TrEMBL record:
Source organism: Flavobacterium glycines
EC number: 6.3.3.2
Protein name: 5-formyltetrahydrofolate cyclo-ligase
Any one GO biological process: folic acid-containing compound biosynthetic process
Enzyme superclass (EC): ligase
Catalysed transformations (reactions): (6S)-5-formyl-5,6,7,8-tetrahydrofolate + ATP = (6R)-5,10-methenyltetrahydrofolate + ADP + phosphate
Protein's gene: ygfA
Length: 189
């Protein structure tokens, strides 16, 4: 079995399908608790993805509660599938969220914040390896977005599963993670 992105996408999508709603809730809570151990809480601008329920992604609701409890600026994105670019909006009590055609919950509009203000990014992924490379859905949204961030922006992958040894077909344009947090471990790269 090759460890290329295509194979890994298939493998981890099927592993995810086996998780019950209850599993997802429990694992998401464990991951959120793990995040408290990271040295990131002096930062102000945090970017969080809203989960695609249909893809059984990590529930980031708990992370949102954690951040708002710590009085952080929370940013969520809207994706443009023609340009593969993301626009980031401040999450406030008035933010209206609507699912796009891919079931991604997105802000309808709001206060836009440029990528270079963002200090910490929580990143969805299907798989990752011990070098900090990740496999996403393959559209390149996050790679593009992370390149627009400052060099000091902290990139944190969130994963239900542990690291693969190596992803074989990593490209130069693939942005590396600084950390990946799983229910059992915090990987630092």
């Amino acid at each position: 079995m090759e460890n290329n992105k295509k194979e890994l996408r298939t493998k981890y999508k099927s592993l995810r399908k086996q998780l019950s709603e209850n599993d997802i809730e429990e694992i998401s809570l464990t991951i959120t608790n793990q995040l408290l151990k990271l040295d990131i809480w002096d930062k102000n601008y945090f970017h969080v993805f809203l989960p695609i329920k249909e893809q059984q992604e990590i529930d980031t609701e708990l992370i949102l509660h954690l951040l708002s409890g710590k009085d952080k600026n929370i940013l969520i994105s809207k994706s443009d599938f023609d340009s593969c670019e993301m626009t980031h909006f401040l999450l406030t009590d008035n933010t209206k969220i609507k699912k796009n055609q891919y079931n991604i919950p997105e802000p309808v509009d709001g206060i836009e914040v440029p990528s270079n203000k963002i200090e910490v990014v929580f990143i969805p992924l299907l798989a990752f390896d011990k070098k900090g490379h990740r496999v996403g859905y393959g559209k390149g949204f996050y790679d593009k977005f992370l390149r627009e961030c400052q060099t000091g922006t902290i990139k944190i992958g969130l994963s239900f599963f542990e690291a693969e040894e190596l992803i074989e077909d990593v490209h130069e344009g693939d942005m590396q993670l600084d950390y990946c947090v799983t229910p059992k471990n915090i990987y630092a790269f």
